[in-house]
Amino acid sequence: MSILAYNGAAIIGMSGKDCVGIASDNRLGIQYETVAMDFKKVFKMNDRLFVGLAGLATDVQTLDQLLRFRMNLYELREERTMSPQVFTNLLSNMLYEKRFGPYFCEPVIAGLDEKGQPHLSTMDLIGAISSAKDFVVAGTCEGNLYGMCETLYKPDMDQETLFETLAQALLASVDRDALSGWGGVVHIITKDGVISRELKGRQD
């Protein structure tokens, strides 16, 4: 079993019309044994930027703390909030610095840029960036997530349609993956604020 699949995860980032969404499951496991059902995998970096971290649970928590530290330093120096593009490059550099002993995490970055347009990107565990206009996925049920997102995604969705699409894609995908699931959470980022909702999923 891959070390990236040791704890299990499912994360989706998807764009809408002047909004962007990110969703993750809640399960923390040790391989096929479920340990917790409230493990946080998506982290708020600022009012317009979220990052989801799929991979080894200890590295997820370490990276979250490191990213907060780097962002706080940036905001003190620059006296402005970090844009999603700058954040993507920061995270890519952090991962590449550790390429010989990497953090076992695959990040998904979702946010709104200065013009209020969606920004989506993901990268592998050594920081190779892949950007997308429609959706990005990471986790142990990546194949299922791609299939569901390709089926359900439509361009220029409003906030409610985007939430429904993310929720259905996530719940349908984790049903076929024993390493992720047990409920989820969806965050919709708009220029007016963030809407967060919890999902109830199958508990078996």
From TrEMBL:
The keyword Kinase does not apply. It comes from the Eukaryota. Keywords: Cytoplasm, Nucleus, Proteasome. InterPro entries: Ntn_hydrolases_N (IPR029055), Proteasome_beta_3 (IPR033811), Proteasome_sua/b (IPR001353), Proteasome_suB-type (IPR023333). It is found in: Nucleus. GO terms for cellular component: nucleus; proteasome complex. This is Proteasome subunit beta. It comes from Discostella pseudostelligera. The lineage of its organism: Eukaryota, Sar, Stramenopiles, Ochrophyta, Bacillariophyta.
